[in-house]
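Table S2 (continued). Query chain:
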Amino acid sequence: MRIAALLEYDGSNFSGWQRQERARSVQQCVEEALSKVADEPITVTVAGRTDAGVHALAQAIHFDTTAARNGYSWVRGAVSNLPDDVALLWADEVDAGFHARFSATGRRYHYIILNRPIRPTYLRGRVSWEYRLLDVEAMQQGAKHLLGENDFTSFRAAECQAKSPVRELRALEVTRHGEFVHIRAYANAFLQHMVRNIAGVLLDIGAGERKPGWAKEVLEARDRTQGGVTALPDGLYLTDIEYPEQFKIPRLSRDIGLW
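Corresponding output:
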């Protein structure tokens, strides 16, 4: 049978999602925990691989197994075998045609920046930090140039393995709440480092280093070297994966309401 599941994790002490030989990964922790519950080797497929330091509130996976377990047993069994920085939130049997990555129709990320002269302390790793005073209105003006279906070559990592750089950015919102600046991005899919590279461009615009129209220039250049720096992974959260209703995957997305 095919099982779908939703995960939450703190990415601070992981090398990223993908399993690596000499580094701690979320994938390894999840597969080891599920293998104990199933009493057989489990290999999972993820909706989207997150970078080192990136967090997830509702990451989606699927795996195939011969083990007969109900959703409650998968969740409770996995949680009891997972480290404190990873939790399985939901699991259930799904149609064999479901695919965590290819069945997804939308993804959302939320990037939180502490905007003050002094670096964060108790929020270290939970938020990014920018000492320059950011003009949120200018950042939002720049963000508008990136909306729609575009070639995001200028915003992808050099080592990105996606076959096509074209993505549909459906929403990109920049707001301020006190000392915190929030960037929320919604797209059909994202390229490697795409959100962090977008954030890097918007940060320079917000700091007055560039005009809002620079975002359009970077996009049209289709050249990663023409963009800004890649923003830190600190403060980046994968908050939601969307699927067609036929698969009955619950929507556990929630806004980060602490800041």
